[in-house]
């Protein structure tokens, strides 16, 4: 059973300006619920009671917002550490077993079985250092990239590489094991550095999401995502 989780909430949200000049992107409300609360709600339903949220931009706003959610520990970054550095800094708060990590700048909704439950069920400790939830590009709302991964028959992953496109993108939801961070760089770095190490060892795995996924990248994208979410949540 996974008991710890981290939500990444330290980003600057530059593409969401001017909204994020005064409101950190995780606290932007989409269809009546902040993106940070939506991620924490998923984790709460999964029974996770050891929660860590990292902060950098407008940290006091996030701290005040979380004051009403029970015990959530904050990992503040005076200097933005990116995804890998942010998780590495918070490792002392995340225990010694696999833990969830979720981005707070995306929104996902579940299929028949909650995505976090599916991830936990799919985790094989002997074989995996990281298990990524993947979204089919063709059903991703608000995404205009070329995809990130191909998935092999044994659920290990391959990068898009030189291909024109790949069918799956990283959703921003995952399970990581602390051993993934052994020998990790100091300070600021991307989780992609560690994914590539795990991939080379055949220990980067994926699970395809069977629900919906939304990326809110700009203020102009908000109305469309809100309309789709409200229709889905009726």
From TrEMBL:
State one Pfam family annotation: NTP_transferase
Q: Does the keyword Transport apply?
A: no
InterPro entries assigned to the protein according to its UniProt record, in alphabetical order: GlmU-like, NTP_transferase_dom, Nucleotide-diphossugar_trans
User: Which Gene3D superfamilies does the record associate with it?
Assistant: Spore Coat Polysaccharide Biosynthesis Protein SpsA, Chain A
Q: What is this protein called?
A: Mannose-1-phosphate guanylyltransferase
Keyword annotations for this protein, in alphabetical order, are:
Nucleotidyltransferase, Transferase
Q: Where is the Nucleotidyl transferase domain?
A: 5-143
Output the Gene Ontology terms for molecular function: nucleotidyltransferase activity
Q: Respond yes or no to whether keyword Transport is given for this record.
A: no
Record SUPFAM superfamilies: Nucleotide-diphospho-sugar transferases
């Amino acid at each position: 059973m996974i008991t710890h989780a981290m939500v990444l909430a330290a980003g600057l949200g530059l593409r969401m300006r001017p909204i994020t000049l005064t409101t950190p992107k995780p606290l932007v409300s989409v269809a009546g619920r902040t993106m940070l609360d939506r991620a924490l709600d998923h984790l709460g339903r999964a029974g996770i009671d050891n929660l860590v949220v990292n902060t950098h931009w407008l940290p006091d706003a996030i701290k005040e917002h979380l004051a009403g959610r029970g015990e959530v520990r904050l990992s503040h970054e005076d200097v933005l550490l990116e995804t890998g550095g942010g998780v590495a800094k918070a490792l002392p708060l995340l225990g010694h077993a696999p833990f969830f990590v979720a981005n707070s700048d995306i929104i996902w909704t579940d299929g028949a079985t909650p995505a976090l439950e599916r991830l936990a069920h799919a985790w094989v400790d002997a074989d995996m250092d990281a298990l990524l939830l993947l979204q089919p590009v063709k059903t991703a709302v608000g995404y205009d990239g070329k995809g990130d991964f191909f998935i092999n028959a044994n659920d290990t992953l391959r990068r898009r590489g030189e291909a024109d496109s790949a069918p799956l993108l990283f959703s921003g939801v995952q399970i990581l094991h602390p051993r993934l961070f052994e020998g990790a760089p100091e300070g600021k770095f991307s989780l992609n550095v560690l994914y590539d190490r795990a991939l080379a060892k055949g220990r980067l795995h994926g699970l395809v999401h069977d629900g919906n996924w939304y990326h809110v990248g700009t203020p102009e994208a908000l109305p469309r995502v809100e309309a789709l979410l409200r229709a889905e949540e009726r």
